[in-house]
Design a protein that fits this description.
The chain has a single domain, classed as MFS general substrate transporter like domains (Growth Hormone, Chain: A, Up-down Bundle). It is globular and about 65 Å long. With 541 residues, the chain is mainly alpha-helical. Strands 1-4-5-6-2-3 form a six-stranded mixed β-sheet, with no helix packed on it. Strand 2 and strand 3 form a beta hairpin. The protein has 21 helices and six strands.
Amino acid sequence: MKLQVSGDSGSSDGSSFVNSDKLHVNIVENGIEDRSTEPIRGRVIKSRDVDATLSFLIENDADVPDISDEEEKHLSRKVVWIIVPLCALVDFVLYADKATASYTSIFGMWDDTNLDQNRYNNSTTLFYVGYILGQVNLILLQKFPVGRVVAVLSFLWSLIIFLHTVASSYQGVYTLRFFLGFVEAIAVPALNVTMSQFLTADEKSWTAPLFYTTCLGNEIVIGFIAFGILHIKPKIAIWKLFMIVIASISLVVTGLVCLLFPDNPTNAKFLSLKEKVWVIRRVQKTTGSSIEQKVIKRYQIVEALKDPISWLFCAFFFCNQLSNNLVYQEKILFKQLGVSTLGSTLVSVAYGGFSVTCAILASIIMGKKNNVTAYSVVFWSLFPLVGSISMVSLNWDRTYALLAMICLCAPKGIAWILMFSWTSTSTSGYTKKMTRNALIMLSYGVSNIIAPQIWRAKDGPRYYPAWIIQIIFAFFLAPLSALTIRFILARRNMRRAISPNEEVIVGVIGGMSIESSSLIKGNIALLDLTDLENEKFVYPL
């Protein structure tokens, strides 16, 4: 039998080579089904290098029947409406700190800490310097349970937001923003990993915009909180009270994370034993990818670096995120357009409402149409493209039109989250995913270091250079890179579709409470192969 997966004895990826016609084999499609003396030739993956769920499947899979169509629908609804809101809630508090930075620019923090436009921009840049350095924390996602990592990070960023209230100088703000970026650096990748563990590729695609509504809609909730704070007369500075409220919300969410956030399907408290097995089966069947792996594989790091798709995703995020400082800048723009502090909170609510509406529409479209991610990215980039061009061309005295154009830029985040979801579903191999995540977040961080600096005080109030840079990079070159990714992945799918459909037989060596001489032949997703190794992997488009 010819194998599509090959290897050498003692290879760096933890495999060995087997060439025997009579080996004792445990036949596994979605767990363990029977025993046979089927011939096996090819690479045998060591037990430490396979999916973290293998031990759980060995113990429980044989006792769980196949899922029926009705049970499948029920399980899908249950997983989607628990995992997505849970991750979205964490994402909400994660992005709330960005809203605090923006609102404090009009709540008096600048006066109390001696900030000005350029120092404010510097504080944002330092946040992303910390963000880049914090990518080293991705090792934690490979070595420790995801749920515990998210809980610790959530507690730390709650604490840092509380500490903002004692800042008395811009140097203190610089320090706090740096460490906040360092702590938050891997939060979004961690949430992305969790959703990939529970959702099929299609579910992950259509729920991505819904997940992101908590970021886009952050302006609504935070806007109403700010609106309420402005109507009371606290004994402390308004911006400090605002920080305390946001930090308290983050701390409550941290408690929920400690209670509910799973490491992977095997310890999800909201699933029965039968449902845990079904979730693992359906995710591995539909994605062809492993759920979790705790061994860092050097060859997968090298493959991620050599794969041009990794660098095209990096190009997208670098270009796209040059527009990200708009979320920090919008309150300043509102003020320069003559909008009152109270009016700014209401315009922000409108901004967030339009964002959420667009995200829901994007989710509906993705749910009804398959393989339209790249086209959706292009479509949702058109709104901020038109808005940015209008901000350059409209007269400054047309206040309401300019406010409307700023709001038209709101859906820019939809393209970002669609691409972030796509980068996960378009690759396989846990270490390769983590490596690509690191590359992408580095590109994201570098771009966000640059982004605040294009909004120079001397260019205000029109900021022509900033808007032009966004038009060229974020809303033209970024969607163009998405189309290029689609073109390459579609060609890979075509080559795989016309290649001979030969059976792939791979094994997993013992050490899993089975005889040392026996092998497990498994669902290929259990083997933690990369998308380039696994010729059965089909790229979503």
